[in-house]
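User: structure tokens for this one?
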Amino acid sequence: MKLTVRVKPNSKKQDIRIEEGIYIISLNSPPLDGKANEELIEALADYFNVSKSKIKIISGHKGKIKIVDIKMEG
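Assistant:
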């Protein structure tokens, strides 16, 4: 399953919500050294109840808009 996500780094509270079909994900981590991307993968793994290895950022590694692929188990 492919998702379009918009990341908001340096947020006070981690949060995931959907607006107009786009997942808006607030992260605590700064966008430095891939920390926000790591937290994004952890947050999505928890949200969709899959292992982190099932989630891959396809595009947007350095931007706020990303395309993420999630391999759903089962």
